[in-house]
Amino acid sequence: MSLQEMIWPIVIAVLLGGTLAFLFWKQRKDAKKVMEPKSNTNESISAVTQQLQLQAYERLILLTDRIALSNLISRVNQPGLSAKEMQLLLTQSIRQEYEYNVTQQIYVSAEAWEAVRSLKDQNMLIVNQVASFLPAEATGQDLNRSILEMLMQNPKASLHNIVADVLSFEAKKLMK
Predict the structure, then answer these.
(1) pTM score, two decimals?
(2) Mean pLDDT of the chain, nearest integer
(3) How far apart, in whole angstroms, are the C-alpha atoms of residue 83 and residue 40?
């Protein structure tokens, strides 16, 4: 076999090898392009999740403010109610506010949710205990005044500032 006869198979092999190498390189490049949007999608999903978490913390901070006893009393106060009626109105308001926001627990830490639940339970307990010490003929104004006096005498009895601080701290950690 002459040199000229051997060149053609070599040229064909080189061209075929080069073509295969080019096609392999192009296929890998296209595969990387397909993978890039997925990583962007994961980043956007993460951003959406973070936004939902921040909104949940925001709503729970609002909840703690709304069920803070001093704020609740000024918001739902109705002259002419008996102490029992006011007790029922206050506890129902706390329960409704809590139930309205119960779904937020899936976006926040277990500790944050437990703090919110404890605040709800504590505030309901305070309302019920103060009401139990009042005479049967006490008015709603008497109940409100007694609750506010108790809170002023013992500021540590109210957890709402502590719970709001915990929620705020966790929200700020998300933003870093």
Answers:
(1) 0.74
(2) 86
(3) 58
